[in-house]
Amino acid sequence: MHYTILDCYTDEASGLGVPPYLGTYPRYLFGKFRKEGHEVTYLTIDDLRLWKKYGGLKKEPSVKEKTNILVYNLTVNNAEDVLNNIDKLVVILGVHVPGKYLTALPGTLKEVIPLLKDLKVPKILTGPAIFGTQLEGGKFSEKEDTSLFDEVINYDALFKEIENYISDSTNIINQIPDKRVIEIETGRGCAVGKCSFCTEPLKNKFVNRSKEDVVNEVKFFYEKGARYFRLGKQADFYASDKPIEMLKEIRESCPEIEMLHIDNVNPNSVVKAGGEEITKAIVEYCTSGNIAAFGVESFDPVVVKANLLNTSPLIAMKAIRIVNKYGAVRGENGMHKFLPGINIIFGLLEETKSTHEKDMQALKDIINEGLLLRRINIRQVAVLPDTYLEKHGGNKYLRKNKQYYWKWRNDIRQNIDYPMLQKILPLGTIVKDVFTEMYDGKTTFCRQMATYPLVIGVKGRIPLKQKINIRIIGHMLRSIVGEVV
Length: 485
Known about the structure:
The chain is α/β, with parallel strands linked by helices. It is built from 15 helices and 21 strands. The chain has helices at residues 24-35, 45-52, 79-83, 109-116, 166-169, 200-203, 211-223, 243-253, 267-271, 275-285, 301-306, 313-327, 353-368, 388-391, 396-424; strands spanning 2-12, 15-16, 21-22, 39-44, 88-95, 123-126, 151-152, 181-185, 187-188, 207-208, 228-233, 259-262, 264-265, 290-297, 338-346, 375-380, 430-440, 443-448, 456-459, 467-475, 480-484.
């Protein structure tokens, strides 16, 4: 049988599958089908758009135009040829934590259904869309008619079997011409699992993959030529199986690895016994530019309590200090070794005007103490089905306070992000191993391969997909201006 996997890209609290990341869903399914003896083809939503919306022709932008990110992430395959000669199509789709993406746009059900309606093969829908999906915060999840699909399957059950498919899954990268960050799953679920907005406790019980299995998956992809990895598909990297040994073995087994980063971290794990030792190992074995994404969500104790949030403001501050203690040193690529990042969510239960005041005071305290934050991620909550938030208030506070969100957001960007960025990358700093990504008129936008990389604007249209070094010559609110050196 000939299967085709259509990757519409996924973004969840526990993992990222939007290019340049390659998520776990298409890899696991590719490996499963290959292991069963099937022919498997991998397509992206960009391949489908190129065929259905652009007649198979990719137009180069003029000097006044932006790079078209709708067809940026093509595979080596031709969607028309493939989709007219297959036996079954599996569509992977769903966003739970909406973001802004430099060179990709996830496909939605609303977009995909019309593009596939004339395709006369059995169609399966899977991915986070099983639990709802939304490309914008501040709304209830998208609820579309899925009658186009013959089956709607939750393939998360594959987790118990994935080690059988990992070696076969690596062949997927032969169908992708561009570099990809391989998002490695270290575990499922959340050890705490209470936050009002999160779907992770609904999807999975907390369980870790073994350290040996994680290391083996990295090695398999490394042997196929992959050089960029993030141990990111989990709720708390510090709770992984033997994280210190895991990192050490990966670096020893893969000496030419160019990026090794982590993602989510529960601040409580950083401050408890053993947390500092894990922090030091991350600094030693991971590559520079690494970030601990702290799910703080709010520094307002009332909101913390109402939403069953994992972290108190006091614990968050302690964790920020510990990560800075060991990681706030500039690394070989110009970025700091390891810094904390903060997630802030608008629209949670019991949010008031004073919530923003408490958030701002905490962030000002961080600056005044001389601590560094690599990034502050601000979003309006997406209200997803069956979450505590949906059952205990839904979008009540979103509607109530929506008029203030732009002001609150801008307050953080102007008075926290901007001075923080100036501290992290002073004028004249050299940032290395930067890839040219896209054009916007006469500006080339670039970034490193990293977890939450900074966007760098450079004057002129430099050839894309090249690796260059940059000198910092200016700062924006969340990005920087550079010149080639």
